[in-house]
Amino acid sequence: AAPAEGFSSTSFVSQDLFMDDEFELDSGWIIGAIGDNATDGTWVRGDPIGTAAQPENDHTPFGTDCWFTGQGNVGGSVGSADVDGGTTTLVSPIIDLSSGDAEISYWRWFDISEGGTPFTDTMTVEISNGGDWVTVETLGPAEGPDTVGGWVFHTFQVSDYLRPNATVSIRFRARDTLFASVVEAALDDVVVRRLECVTCQTDLGLSGPGDLTLGLCGPVLASGMDGKLEITNG
Fold first, then answer.
1. CB count in 10 Å sphere of residue 25
2. Residue 156 CA: distances (Å) to CA of 52, 120, 202
3. Which residues, listed in sequence order, are joined to residue 192 by a DSSP beta bridge?
């Protein structure tokens, strides 16, 4: 459907991988935070039983488990184990980014299209470096591709929201606003990585006789990174 739609990819030389979590095993994520008050549908890790609002399968191609909000029963109603009564939070383990910036990506599911008053609830994704929580994205309450279920990919750069340090964490908060609605959220395949790209400064301001050049190449320059400084035809 070009040019309206297309594919894209990112090229890089190497990557530093800080987290690659498919949730097939318990990796230390924490359920609950200050302010949580949901009476049902709190986050749980496992193989979800699908409903009209909740995924039947996780996102990992050869996996079965993910995090999701409440495990219902086979043949149960769409709202039998959804988020009720308030907020439920899922918090990541601490991520050490003291060496520099990183990219965080994940696959999320959020459905508020069912029930008597659909599209009245929200989910937020937030990040912290040990201080206040900063909102990365807010889903809902409007109707749209992020609020009708289905696995949706999202990625962001940590430095766009706060300074990376040794105590970075992310959290996912699904909320029920007490209307007669159904709220289901899920999370899978969280990746935290730093992409290494070799770039060259095109002009370092050196002028001299002949074709003497001074080049500086390597990853994007940041604290702790290495570069190659080269003088040619000196």
1. 9
2. 29, 26, 27
3. 19, 104
Give the whole-angstrom CA distance, residue 138 versus residue 146.
10
Percent share of the chain, pLDDT over 90: 71
Question: How far is residue 217's CA from residue 141's CA, in Å, rounded to a whole number?
Answer: 46
Q: Which residues pair with 105 in a beta bridge?
A: 155, 191
Distance CA 116, CA 82 (A): 14
C-beta atoms surrounding 60 within 10 Å: 16
pTM given for the model: 0.84
Cα–Cα distance measured from residue 157 to residue 102, given in angstroms and rounded to the nearest whole number: 6
Give the range among 53-67, 84-98, 121-135, 217-231 with minimum mean pLDDT.
217-231
* Residue length of the chain: 234
- The answer for 213, left when phi > 0, alpha when psi is -120 to 50, beta otherwise, is beta
Are the CB atoms for 108 and 137 separated by under 8 Å?
no
Cα angle, residue 19 at apex, residues 218 and 58 outer, rounded to 5°: 130
User: Is the separation of the CB atoms in 27 and 148 below 8 Å?
Assistant: no
Contact 187, 90 (CB under 8 A): yes
Q: Which residue(s) pair with 128 in the sheet? A: 169
